Each structure stands twice: as structure tokens, then as C-alpha cells.
Amino acid sequence: MQASEGMAGTNKEGAEHMKVDIIASGSGGNCIALTYEGRTILIDAGVAKTKIAKRLLEVGIRPDQVTDIFITHAHGDHIKGLPLANQYRIPVWATDGEWKGISGVDEELRRVVETRFSKYESIQLGDIWVYPFKTHHDAYEPIGYAIEADNGSRACVVFDTGKYDQDMLDMMEGSIYIIIEANHDPDMVEASNYPISVQSRILSDLGHLSNQQTAEALQKLIRGNGERIYLTHLSSNNNSPILAEMTVKAALRQKGFIAGTHYEIEVVST
Fold it and tell me: Are 5 and 32 contacting, i.e. CB atoms less than 8 angstroms apart?
């Protein structure tokens, strides 16, 4: 699988959807580029800044065209490339809690994802709206993002989370692009040589989504409207691309949806 995959289309009115490029995905680092009307935002920057810049250029995006970087949480495989922000003067958005784990970003580039009445406030960037929402991971204040263009095309990004809940599903509802982790197979985790403490963390509600959990979430989200599913953040030791893909396809087949007819699916492991 190549490191970067792009997709753009048109809606019923003929306006372009946003373009999705998977810059990096997996245990080694995660970074998503979303482009609409010439504006590119990154969700996470988890590989070296030189690698992000190179892969952006490979999909036709200059690094200085990135207008904002949104961080889901401050683990290394999601923030390693943040020096890119200082180099290209890109604002970086993260929750107040996650800023506790982020250093080295120039003060004038730091932006806080704010809450109001215990809900995260939406962020408008020209023709794009960003809707942060709570996730469940062993970080200070982790979040996912739904991103909607003014023409109604919507994407959602859910990386590290040990479970999904109704609030998350509500924010993901209606997305054309669903970028979601399918991290592990529980049986493979339990059979691994990982210490019991690490196994317990992965399998906990503050760990990572299993293939089956992801499949269950997608059963609730997919409507057969040509959605594009990207399965990301696969464990290199406790999963396989074919297993993740087959688990999701089987679950969606139970709902009467067939890959290539009602939706598209791509497993990204880089």
C-alpha cells in the first residue's frame, strides 16, 4: 500500500468534495491531509517533518499550502512532525489537556480547542468547519474531528480510542469519508509476547479499537451512499490488513451493503 492515497469527487450540485490523502498511518506515525478549495489542513503530524513534506509533495500539495494542523492527542506517533509548524508558520490546534504533552511549538502558533458547556466549540476556517469531539484513550484530553465543507461534504477522523459511544457516532454521522482505526485483533493481542500490562492497555476502554469494534461502529454509520472507508492505524504485530478488511466487509454484508457497490473500503498500512 502506498503511503498516500487521494480521492476527490463531485456532489449532486457538481461542486468538488474535499480531497483526502493518507500521508502516514500505523504504529510508526499518523497524518491525514484534507484539502478543499485550495485549503489543506492536517489531522496529526506523527512522522518526521521531512517525511510529511515529501509525501505532501507526492500528492500535489506544497507544505506551505497547509493552513492548520489539528492534533488528536499528544502521543509521539501523532505529534513527531510538529516542527513542520514552526518551519512553515502553521497554527497548531489541540485541547488544553493535550497541550500539556506538546513542546516546541512557537507560542504564536498555539491554538486551543475550546469547550463551552462541556461541548467542544466548532472552528471555522474559510469554507471548512471543524467539529472536535471526545474520544477515549490514555491521554490527557484526546479528541477526534469531523470536518465539513460548505457544500456539505464531510469527513471524520477517529484514531486512538478504546471504545466508541453515541456522541462519537453522532459526530461521524453523514460523513462521506470515514477515517477510522482498526488497530488489532484481540486474539492476536492475547497470543502476543506483549507484557500483560500492555495487552490490558490495548484491550481496555482507553486503548485502541479492535477490528470488530470498528466493524460495529461502521454498521451504524454506513448508509450505502458511496461512503469511502479508510481503515487506519493497524498494529503491525497484532493485526493484518486482510483480517481488518474482511471483518468490516462481513459486518456490512449483514446490513446488505457490498463493497464496490454501496461503499468503498481501503486498508492503509504504511
Answer: no
